Write the structure tokens for this entry.
Amino acid sequence: MKLVLAFLLLSTAAIAADWPVPEQGSMAPAFRLPSQDGSVVSLAQYRGRWVVLYFYPKDFTSGCTREAENFERDAQKYASLNASIIGVSTDGVASHKGFQTRESLSFRLLSDTDHVVSQAYGSVMEYNGKLFAERNTFLIDPTGKIRRVYVKVNPETHSDEVLADLAALQR
């Protein structure tokens, strides 16, 4: 048991070392990914707006559902602060469409099935031999600079935390 745990910890550490999390103050890595409606979404489309780019492991799971519900609950508050919410996971477009419909989400869910964007944001984790997006969030300003980095967030309280930081940064 200890050997398996040690292997998992070393595997996770190796993944993290291969794809470091971008630093606060750096420019956000560009991306183009399909959304739940099949359209291609790029970070460049959001120039001039704040972006809450959140990575999550899997549609329809309890923590990911709670996190999405909380972002949706606060969607109007984000909109009033000129901010767009974008979720990213390694699930496919069809899964995102079902999740978005079931949870009545108003924001985009992007499909990163090749893990390219998750890797660029240092947000990859391995579980049972598969790669998933790790629960990290990046608050990106209207010029494309990362202003806050949140690593391994708590899905219960995360939206409140991001909203508070966003409001403080705009003061």
Remarks:
- The longest helix spans residues 2-18.
- The domain at 2-170 is CATH 3.40.30.10 (Glutaredoxin).
- The CA atoms of residues 140 and 146 lie 4 Å apart.
- The chain has one domain: 2-170.
